[in-house]
Design brief:
The chain has 87 residues and is α+β, with helices and mostly antiparallel strands. It has helices at 33-41, 72-75; strands spanning 12-14, 23-29, 49-54, 59-63, 66-70, 78-82.
């Protein structure tokens, strides 16, 4: 009998770990529904591509022509995938 461990996807990282000027795609956010709705209304939703403009407090991301300031607490709960095609 062979045990197969589940594949862990290591390409997803918290948004807070991106470097400045790096582009990424939102994969999943561990936020409550009101936070998700507010961010989605500003363009930051699942599968959205964005660029990290400034790391810190606040963290500044650019989604298309819109820049958003996000708290560190929020960026730690948004999982992203680095955009290898975009960078």
């Amino acid at each position: 009998m062979t045990l197969i461990s589940p594949k862990i996807d290591h390409e997803y990282i918290p948004l807070s770990q991106l470097r400045e000027r790096e582009k990424a795609v939102v994969q999943v956010a561990e936020l409550d529904s009101s936070e998700c709705e507010a961010l989605a209304a500003m363009g930051l939703h699942e599968e959205a591509t964005f660029e990290l403009c400034q790391q810190g407090q606040p963290c500044i991301v650019q989604v298309e022509a819109t820049r958003l300031g996000l708290s560190r607490e929020v960026t730690e709960r948004i999982m992203v995938r680095r955009c290898s095609v975009c960078n």
